[in-house]
Amino acid sequence: MIEAVGLTKRYGDKTAVHNLSFQVRPGAVTGFLGPNGSGKSTTMRMILGLDNPTAGHVTISGHPYRQLPNAPRHVGALLDAKAVHGGRSARNHLLSLAQLSGIPARRVDEVLGVVGLQEVAGKRSKGFSLGMGQRLGIAAALLGDPQVLLFDEPVNGLDPEGILWVRNLMKALAAEGRTVFVSSHLMSEMALTADHLIVIGRGQLLADMSVTDFISANSADFARVRTPGTEPQAREKLTSALTEAGGHVMPEQDGALRVTGLPLPRISDIAHEAGVRLWELSPHQASLEEAYMRMTQGVVDYRSTDDQKAGLHQVPPPGAGPAVPVPGQGQPGWYAPPPPQQGGPLFAPPPGPYGAPQPNPYAQPAPQGQGPGQPAAAPVTADRTEPEDPR
Ligand SMILES: Nc1ncnc2c1ncn2[C@@H]1O[C@H](COP(=O)(O)OP(=O)(O)OP(=O)(O)O)[C@@H](O)[C@H]1O
């Protein structure tokens, strides 16, 4: 088990992790989720003794990593797949790690087989694609057959087949009773892989619960209601009537209404009593991805802005044709999630063994339209392999 208590890390006046307390239990895959820069890698580095906490502590099986007897056999980690001597072959890289940890050399070929790199084991890793590098990093993590495994963004750069393989590998490792802690940005992937979730934003805990509980707590049911497009006054009348009856009504981009807090038959009755015809009344559930986005929307460090292309285009003359629609913008089928409770926190973490969360020093206004933009996804390079450097 991994246990963090009051874990805090400051770099100068920058707080990367603030008062984080959680447990990662054996026999389950625990997903570690948070937006870019939320402190996931910093937390993982502290777990592995690569960074010292400013306050608090973290233990693995009851010991700080550096005091663990035979740590490399007990804990395996993939932190940075690029942290490899590129001139070495995959096999030699793993052999050198094995020698350092007293692991028999035959184990190297076993893990090369597990990650599917047997064919390129003799090639220099600097010719490896991003996905091959990830596989090599996973092989290194598995080398000591450890009980505790940490993976920082293990599916980064993997193709769909590779992503499925990682998903099944994580589940299989947990089913063997191991502790598996996996960081990701991707709620959708974690929903398929993890049993338990720890969600952080700006270094502070936002949620610590099972995936099942997260889904039922966050994937709110709602109704979509549409009145005839030719009768805008009917839409307003219905909005008032539903609000009066205790519903929460939000306009959708395609002109429909999103209604929460009222069952469908009640909405139908209210419309009938108000003399409003309905063209649509349908049940929906907000996706888990929406729930995660909603939970973390206030703690995102990097936001993209619309590209205004100032001065690059001539203003079209009046009466010119409509702009080409942009996928996902202003089109039917895109549903804005309901806003968080007015004045309340985005998410109230359940009372845990560590008491209520403390105020977050990150409580600064999120940058509005000034961020440097979402960093582009790392490119997937072609599978190039070179023979090993003879040096
Ligand atoms: N060595 C360091 N010196 C100064 N600031 C740092 C250092 N390491 C991390 N930070 C800052 O701490 C914050 C958390 O970074 P961290 O890499 O842990 O986030 P993350 O959740 O892993 O991000 P990503 O998902 O983008 O990898 C960031 O603002 C980062 O700039």
Describe this structure in words.
With 391 residues, this protein is α/β, with parallel strands linked by helices. Helices cover 28% and strands 22% of the residues. It contains 11 helices and 15 strands. It binds adenosine-5'-triphosphate. The site of adenosine-5'-triphosphate has 12 residues, from strand 2 and helix 1.
Ordered list of secondary-structure elements with their pairings:
Blueprint lengths: L1 E10 L2 E11 L3 E6 L6 H8 L7 E6 L10 H4 E4 L11 H12 L4 H10 L7 E2 L5 H13 L5 E5 L7 H16 L3 E6 L2 H7 L2 E6 L2 E7 H8 L2 E6 L5 H13 L3 E4 L5 E4 L3 H10 L6 E6 L2 H9 L89 E2 L4
Parallel strand pairs: 3-8, 3-9, 5-7, 7-8
Antiparallel strand pairs: 1-2, 1-4, 6-15, 9-10, 11-13, 11-14, 12-13
Adenosine-5'-triphosphate binds next to strand 2 and helix 1.
Short description:
This protein has helices at residues 40-47, 71-74, 90-101, 106-115, 130-142, 160-175, 187-193, 211-218, 232-244, 264-273, 288-296; strands spanning 2-11, 14-24, 28-33, 55-60, 75-78, 123-124, 148-152, 179-184, 196-201, 204-210, 221-226, 248-251, 257-260, 280-285, 386-387.
Biggest sheet details: 6 strands, mixed
Query: What low-confidence regions span 5 or more consecutive residues with pLDDT below 50?
Result: 321-387
Query: How is the largest sheet built, in terms of strand order?
Result: 5-7-8-3-9-10
Order of helices and strands: EEEHEHEHHEHEHEHEEHEHEEHEHE
* Helix content range: 25-40%
Arithmetic mean of pLDDT: 80
Tell me what portion of residues adopts beta-strand conformation: 15-25%
Gyration radius, rounded: 25 Å
Estimated structural class = alpha/beta
**Molecular shape:** elongated
Organism: Streptomyces fumanus
Keywords: ATP-binding, Nucleotide-binding, Transport
Protein name: ABC transporter domain-containing protein
InterPro entries: AAA+_ATPase, ABC_transporter-like_ATP-bd, P-loop_NTPase
